[in-house]
TrEMBL record:
<dbReference type="GO" id="GO:0005829">
    <property type="term" value="C:cytosol"/>
</dbReference>
<dbReference type="InterPro" id="IPR002201">
    <property type="entry name" value="Glyco_trans_9"/>
</dbReference>
<keyword id="KW-0808">Transferase</keyword>
<protein>
    <recommendedName>
        <fullName>Lipopolysaccharide heptosyltransferase family protein</fullName>
    </recommendedName>
</protein>
<dbReference type="GO" id="GO:0008713">
    <property type="term" value="F:ADP-heptose-lipopolysaccharide heptosyltransferase activity"/>
</dbReference>
<dbReference type="GO" id="GO:0009244">
    <property type="term" value="P:lipopolysaccharide core region biosynthetic process"/>
</dbReference>
<dbReference type="Pfam" id="PF01075">
    <property type="entry name" value="Glyco_transf_9"/>
</dbReference>
<dbReference type="InterPro" id="IPR051199">
    <property type="entry name" value="LPS_LOS_Heptosyltrfase"/>
</dbReference>
<keyword id="KW-0328">Glycosyltransferase</keyword>
Amino acid sequence: MFILCLKIYIQTILKNILIYRTGSLGDTIVALPALQIIRNKNPNSKIYYLHIKNHDLSSVSPVKIFKDLQLIDRFIEMDNINSLEGFYTSFKILKKIKIKKLYYLNEDRPINKKIRDFIFFKILLNFKILGLSIFSNNNCFYEGYYLANKIQKTSFKNLLSINELLRKKFKESIKLDNFFKLRNYITISPGGRIPSKRWKISNWKTLIKKIISKNKNIKIIILGTKKDKYQNYEISKIFKNNVLNFTGKTSFKKLTYILNFTNLHICHDDGTMHLSILLNKKVLSIFHNIDFKKKWFQGHNKKHLQLYSLYGIESIKVEKVMQNFSKLKKIKI
């Protein structure tokens, strides 16, 4: 009897899996294929998702993103460990769950943080860690593809199949909603977490003016968080007949609904970009000065156009964005 109980206990703890991933809406979206692979590999396991609590009230919690995807069983939300008391609390919570396998999906953290995480999870908690590469970073792959291959060797074709499955789940989750009846519109997300990586408000105003001049009856939905409220109001107030400002007014589900029916989405490198791509929409992204390496998009699909400059985002001219908008608008899905 004792041996039987021991076997059941061992089987139970071996089925407890922890996924550790931190970040924004976009960071969560790009990790979804990796999470789907983990679920496929461990269909009978209880999967926990650990993330660091974001105290920014305008941020989107992973809990809301995963709600209808059947990927995660339990969520663990913790504050950053900044004291011995915080360390002890986190240690106690994770020790109690009796997890043996950890999927580490924070790929480009500084080496000192990776070492810290290795000590905490491997040495102190004795977790088996999968996916932690302390001295290497992702330099040449789209992040979602890179994370998926950390879990299981995955071809790009397989990644697209997984994205199709995730897309169906998202569409299924909103099919009974009727957020609004408008269907013929484009969306623009002019904000972003880091002000220095944003295109100037004056550029957005000029772009929208040009778009409306060539499309008199076009409807444009402006999206963003409460932090973007002031700048988006400054943009939208000029074009009241054509622009609907939904800044700070959308839940994650409503955001998914709006982007699912948009004809085209213009944005920075933000969460709306990654969600729109997953929904297979036309996307025009304006990137900041980064070492681009063609890794940000899921392939080189003609529906996904990205604009960037080695000289910074302000060197990207309105005329160039307008040209690419016109080009993308003509493409039939």
